[in-house]
Amino acid sequence: MAAYVNVTIDGVQAQVPSTHTILDAARDNNINIPTLCHLKLHNEESVNKVASCRICVVEVEGRRNLAPACCTKVSRDMVVHTHSARVMRARRVIMQLFLSNHPKDCLNCYASGNCELQTLADQMHTDSNRFEGQSSDFAIETSSEAITRDLNKCIRCRRCETACNEMQTVGVLSGVGRGFDMVVGPAFLHPLEKTQCVFCGQCVKVCPTGALMGKSYIDQVWEDINDPEKVVVVQTAPAVRAALGELFGLEPGTSVTGKMVSGLRRLGFDHVFDTNFTADLTILEEATEFIHRVQHGGRLPMLTSCCPAWVKFFEHQFQDMLDVPSTCKSPQEMFGAIAKTYWAEKAGVDPSKVVVVSIMPCLSKKYEASRSELSASGFQDVDWVLSTRELGRMLKEAGVDLLKLPEGQFDHPLGLSSGAADIFGVTGGVCEAALRMAAEVVTGQTLGDVDFEAVRGYEGLREASMKVGELDLKVAVACGLGNARKLLESIRAGECEYHLIEIMACPGGCIGGGGQPFVDSRTEKDVLHKRIEALYAEDAGKKMRKSQDNPYIKQLYAEFLGEPYGQKSHELLHTSYTEREKL
Amino acid sequence: MTRFATREDFTAYTEALAKAGSGKERTRILVGMSTCGIASGAEAAYEAIGAAVAEAGLDNVEVVKTGCVGLCHAEPTVEVERPGKPLATVGKVDAERGRQLVADLAAGRELDGCLCTGGEVYGNQVRIALRNCGRINPENLDDYLGNGGYQALARALFEQKPEDVIAVVKESGLRGRGGGGFPTGLKWEFARKSQADTKYIVCNADEGDPGAFMDRSILEGDPHVILESMALAGYAIGAANGFIYVRAEYPLAVKRLTLAIDQAKAKGLFGQNILGSGFSFDVSIKYGAGAFVCGEETSLIHSIEGKRGEPTVKPPFPAESGLWGKPTNVNNVETLANIVPILQKGGAWFRAIGTESSPGTKVFALAGDVKNVGLVEVPMGTTVREIVYGIGGGTPSGKPVKAVQTGGPSGGCIPAEKFETPVDYDTLTALGSIMGSGGMIVMDQDTSMVEIARFYLQFTCDESCGKCTPCRVGNKRLLEILDRLLQGEAKADDLTTLKELSLVIKDTSLCGLGQTAPNPVLSTLQWYHGEYEQCLRPKKTVKDYRIVEEKCVGCTACARICPVKCIDGVVKKPHVIDQDKCVHCGACFSTCKFDAIVCE
After folding, report:
1. For residue range A46-65, what is the model confidence (pLDDT) as tens digits?
2. Which end of chain A is more exposed for a tag (fewer CB within 10 A), N or C?
3. Rounded mean pLDDT of B79-97?
4. CA distances (Å), A271 to each of A263, A352, A358, A410, B88, in order?
5. Do A97 and B474 touch (CB under 8 A)?
6. CA-to-CA distance for A377 and A357, rounded, in angstroms?
7. pTM of the shown model
8. Which of A192-196, A426-430, B120-124 is predicted with the least confidence, judged by mean pLDDT?
9. Residue pair A177/A136 in contact by the 8 Å Cβ criterion
10. Interface contact B515, partner A, CB < 8 A
11. Helix H or strand E segment including A184
């Protein structure tokens, strides 16, 4: 077959690869065909090509019916019309059909402004009330701590299903029911809470409308901030600073750490701390645990456990391997545990009055905060979790213009961190941070070059080997749960010899989390790259690059915890895992 | 019975079978025992006949359980084959009539209640797909072998190359009988040409059109023909495995298929190394759980794979990438039932039957307002009139036929003025209907065509998988417009909307279900536009008074009180109200002492 074919689209003649769809060929030639269900995910492997919405239909000469451009391959001398009278009539009717079963309450909708249906309806400017009739009447599903589903807004594009099943291999979502009542959800429309959903939020990220949303805790946070009895401390995850600016019109990859700190103070948080501090703490615990496992013949490989979606994933899917991941709590939870013990005592505050709010790039962190065992201080480690998007919304509703704020500084001691902590937000970052410490502990020498380039990258599955002292260390890094599954299965089959594996549920790591600002899928890859670069730049810009060099961490051990991986650490900073059912 | 290790073993066996049967002057009493017959009481009749034959000591009479001959209106049916006499068909045979029938036979009398002799009741039918239905015992392999069964397969395996088999099917011009009408030979050729280590044959037995039972009848009446044809298809395209996707609502079909598979395997006619040829072919039965859309081949394939039964875009066609991504050939039951006769008698023989563009015959399930409800098989090109009046016998009420509906929920209505049209794939499409799988519903003049359109659309709405927008939402909106029309609540522009929406649904839906769903609306709009317009007129809000003939004693009280003198009648005879003159005052209603006047 010829590698290229000639096609004519709207009179424009072009040579395009024969593997192209009409949509690809049109886009290459700057001809815009509207789409709703089509989605090429960042990894370019998972493509939602169900051709269900039919908004992209075009007229192909010689063909009986209209063709969906998204999944009709080009052929030799194909002649395509993307806006003939027949196409326009069909497209308009389909949009009218969509709108006939969609709540037209954009003013109340959290997706307003980010809604692809709204944008397209606006472009087409069609009579949204032409078809009257029954509309879907689903109760809004709020069972989980992390994700809210309003199926009345679902346009059955099935993108969420592709993200959940193909990319993440979680397998919770699929078409349920028939005909007009067909909708996308868990089997038997069980509440999400009762399924093996890990709340990674990738479904929320790809939803073109407001059908899938992160559950909002903005109101609760405002209430606590304004409660004079409560001491509200806030922590911010590393990935937030690399993306928050996008919500205020800044170019992707612009770090807004200082402005974010000022913004949080403006909102009224009593103390603005950094999850990065406990990222450093995590490294001390995790690297020590790792060295302990290596030196004492413990279970290898050791898998990181910072990502709550990943933790829930293996609890459901790999129940026989619960001893493989590190027992370290995530930095968010370590923060809560330290804030409500060490810091509260140090600051002279009643821990029952301390409210810990987290700003996270993640929706699963909302779920993690609710896990009852994460409460060793006697209080739930973390009280409220807001996503990056929610923080943007809070700032906007409070009239705080992030761009005009001065560069603020985190409060201490829980606000100081090393560069190693910054890169926690990037795939490979936790692994690199751990290596920066493990190498020094194993060799007993100060590490000269702290950049472990071998574990950096963007691909979903990477591996590297390196010599650390006497040890030939093999590490692997996975982002995306589909990739994690591959690694886990090879471990289960005894095929892999890694010592340390880092896993993050989201593409690119936390910077691609389900709570981050929405990105057009066509530019997502670029945006994720820029966010990654921003965090590496933060790291490189710091003098202190290794967690073990953080003086406040040293002080924390000296004054409170004793030794890394010691008794007190076990009580406060480590956890255990639970076998969970697979639906 | 031992397994045939070679073709010679098989030939020797069939020759011996023929020899044993020849020269014997036997009378056969054939009792139709498909689901339909059994439901009407055939089992009791069968037992009674068997007992009576034994009691009368009729040694030369054989009582045979067969499939259905298609005479639904006369079930349970029994046919009698006697040496030197024409076939006798007897209808409505219960135990009592069964015994009577045996008594008549024993006494050499005319058979009481005989519908016809010489198969007159079948009219001008030509039976190819149904040729064994009602003629053989579907549970007896020897019966099938006696009619030339497995000969085509044996010959293909030992004398023909796969390409030769495909050439014969191509020459026959056979087109898919499931509704699509795609040339079967071409389909096989595509699957043959697809390179892969594994390929599959799928028999689509997910018959779902309301009122259609062609495939069930074949599966219950002649299961071996499906197995033999599937093996032939497997040999032709290079597949060693197949699936029969049959709806779970057909338990008897499944039972007889399972039995047939076991029988054929035990004899080496199916399964491993068939007749020692080195070719192996086996099938598994998969149950359909009652989703109409699973008759669509990509949905069917997903359902077999254990996934949600919903369609995906074609291409890739199953011939290229089907079950588990492997080349897969999907054929409907009736299509397969034609394969064995075609290979037995040749492509040219088949092509000579029917029309140029649609060779062969078609089985129709004739139902509705028609006397002889049943299953009929006619050569393509037979006129609608011949089917409806010639075979069907017109309406039971004697009222004129208004239209027939073909193609089920994907089809349309053919008005009486088009009844001279010879039926084939292309003429039906030209009339705005489709051949479909073979449902043919006759409607008399009292039928509301808007209600008919609504009935089919309700079915499609219930059975749509909901994947694509036009089918999921569009058909729902069509249905709502039809509801409004029927309730007298339609808006002035509803007819325009109905047509435009129908055309867009056809033009943009993902699979065949959606692409054809508006056909019942469009075809009735085309031929019966007046009925739709009627729905737009304001409905009368007053009720009519009417005199019930049986109750009226002719007292004349009503006629006397009527202010407009619109009640007519003779003393002591039932009176009548002239509706055109009636002003609905209700005086007659209040006056009548015999409750003979109703208001409705």
Report:
1. 778 889 999 999 999 999 99
2. N
3. 93
4. 12, 16, 12, 8, 100
5. yes
6. 16
7. 0.90
8. B120-124
9. no
10. yes
11. strand A183-185
